[in-house]
């Protein structure tokens, strides 16, 4: 599957549709070239591995007591370092990130995940290396 976004639920955006078409076309081009016997050299790519889902701060009644900090909003896939602002309480207090390592939040403040008690997902950046591949032509 291919998920391309972000975009609000129920909204069709031309720019997002164009990105989805391009990525599907690249995938189909790869399959065709592979099936024709084309050799692909080794490569390394950066990926983001999910570490954990992070909920909004809540009180003892399970009510949300803070919102995503404005400096974190719309910063999906950007580095988040110790001390960076995460949440802003309804009283105006900043709740900072206290982690020991840099993480890369994604799915920040997405409406589809609110009911799942997910403010964002912490990911770590990694590099994956693939060996060369080639399909022998039959």
Describe the structure concisely:
This protein has 138 residues and is α+β, with helices and mostly antiparallel strands. It has helices at 14-35, 111-114; strands at 39-40, 43-54, 66-68, 85-89, 94-96, 120-130, 133-134.
Structural summary, described in words:
The protein is α+β, with helices and mostly antiparallel strands and about 140 residues long. It is built from 2 helices and 7 strands; from the N terminus they run H-E-E-E-E-E-H-E-E. A hairpin with a 4-residue loop joins strand 4 (about 85-90) and strand 5 (about 95). GO terms for molecular function: hydrolase activity, acting on carbon-nitrogen (but not peptide) bonds, in linear amides.
* Poorly predicted spans: none
Q: Biggest sheet, strands in spatial order?
A: 3-4-5
Tally of extended strands?
7
Tally of individual domains = 2
Q: What about the largest sheet?
A: 3 strands, antiparallel
Protein name: ACY2 Aspartoacylase
InterPro entries: AspA/AstE_fam, Aste_AspA_hybrid_dom
Organism: Bucorvus abyssinicus (Northern ground-hornbill)
GO molecular function: hydrolase activity, acting on carbon-nitrogen (but not peptide) bonds, in linear amides
């Amino acid at each position: 599957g291919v998920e391309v976004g972000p975009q609000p639920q129920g909204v069709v955006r031309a720019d997002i549709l164009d990105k989805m078409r391009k990525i599907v076309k690249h995938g189909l081009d790869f399959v065709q070239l592979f099936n024709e016997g084309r050799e692909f050299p080794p490569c390394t790519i950066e990926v983001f591995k999910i570490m954990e889902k992070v909920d909004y701060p809540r009180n003892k009644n399970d009510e949300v007591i803070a919102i995503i900090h404005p400096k974190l909003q719309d910063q999906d896939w950007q580095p988040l370092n110790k001390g960076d602002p995460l949440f802003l309480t309804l009283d105006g207090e900043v709740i900072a990130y206290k982690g020991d390592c840099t993480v890369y939040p994604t799915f920040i403040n997405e409406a589809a995940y609110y009911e799942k008690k997910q403010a964002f997902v912490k990911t770590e950046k990694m590099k994956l290396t693939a060996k060369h591949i080639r399909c022998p032509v039959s």
